[in-house]
Design a protein that fits this description.
By secondary structure, the protein is mainly alpha-helical. The protein has two domains: 3-213; 237-296, no CATH class. The protein has helices at residues 24-36, 46-76, 96-138, 147-158, 160-230, 273-296, and strands at residues 3-9, 14-20, 241-243, 269-271. A hairpin with a 4-residue loop joins strand 1 (3-9) and strand 2 (14-20). Keywords: Membrane, Transmembrane, Transmembrane helix.
Length: 309
């Protein structure tokens, strides 16, 4: 943060100013500006012009920092901006939480810079308006007894060329501020688009995984439901045991093949109701999967009817 306090002495064409918060680079920039324009050393707009240049350099640096951060985040999105559309090896891919955190921080920085740029443009515009009003006042006819007015008019005539230079430079700074605001808005729109695109792909992958899980459940749940229903005691079905050749096996007294389990030469048998269960479960599974495919893959858009023919 830089602040300036200055006083301009009109008769002596001398300006004294104190700059607060400047680092070494900014002080070098001040000396550079004074060295490059020795003919405006005594101009009344000198301190304003220097402060405007320092503010422009500061905002330009912040815009470049945000642009570099945006480029780095874009590479982490998947390397779409890398050579041949591939992500560089030294750039790791994003996870969802880090994406939200970095995007939120970048949006906050971008918004703050836009506000500062717009505020700086407003101040420069106001300065130009004050300069124009001062010029119009100094060009009005003044009486000979108005000494201060004569001095002000003399200062205006001697600094007319310098004033035009300052006005031209301030207008250029307004154009630069508009460009900075445009860059910030473009970066903000790009980040919003990239984040939405990334989240859309992430959601699509989640939906695809959910469909696979739902398909597996549709294959498994109907069969377990049928076997659970058939095992209810309300049916009181008596088991008839069959071998693998569909021949009836002699029933034991317990109506189960447990009596022959101890005999190693006994034939492996299973309940005859197994085939009923198998047929019913396959039918229910096909019905479930078919209903899901019928309603899930119907891409026709049904608009609500709002009027009648």
């Amino acid at each position: 943060n830089v602040a300036v306090s200055s006083t301009h002495f009109v008769q002596a064409r001398f300006t004294t100013a104190v700059f607060y918060g400047c680092d070494d680079d900014q002080m070098d920039r001040v000396f550079e500006l004074l060295t490059r324009s020795p003919d405006v050393m005594g101009h009344r707009l000198l301190s304003i012009g220097i402060f405007a240049e320092l503010l422009s350099d500061h905002l330009e640096k912040r815009v470049l920092d945000v642009k570099e951060a945006s480029t780095g985040i874009t590479l982490k999105f998947g390397g779409w901006w890398g050579p041949h559309g591939r992500r560089p090896d030294n750039v790791k891919k994003y996870n969802q939480w880090q994406l939200n955190e970095d995007t939120f921080q970048l949006r906050a920085d971008d918004t703050a810079i836009q506000e500062d740029v717009n505020a700086a443009k407003t101040h420069i515009t106001r300065i130009l308006d004050v300069i124009s009003e001062s010029e119009e006042a100094e060009q009005r006819p003044i009486s000979a007894s108005n000494t201060s007015g004569n001095l002000s008019s003399f200062a205006y005539q001697s600094n007319c060329a310098g004033t035009e230079r300052f006005k031209r430079r301030l207008r250029q700074l307004c154009v630069q501020y508009e460009r900075m605001a445009g860059i910030c808005q473009a970066q903000l729109d790009q980040m919003t688009f990239m984040r939405d695109f990334y989240m859309a792909n992430y959601t699509a992958r989640e939906v695809k995984a959910g469909k696979a899980l739902a398909f597996a459940a549709m294959i498994y749940l109907p069969r377990t439901s049928v076997v659970t229903i058939m095992a209810m005691p309300i049916f009181d079905w008596k088991a008839r045991w069959l071998d693998f050749y569909l021949h009836f096996s002699p029933q034991s007294s317990e109506d189960s093949p447990s009596a022959n389990v101890s005999n190693p030469d006994s034939t492996t048998v299973l309940s005859g109701y197994f085939w009923i269960y198998l047929a019913v479960s396959i039918f229910v599974t096909i019905l479930t999967v078919g209903s899901w495919m019928l309603y899930s893959f119907d891409e026709q858009v049904r608009w609500p009817v709002t009027m009648k023919d």
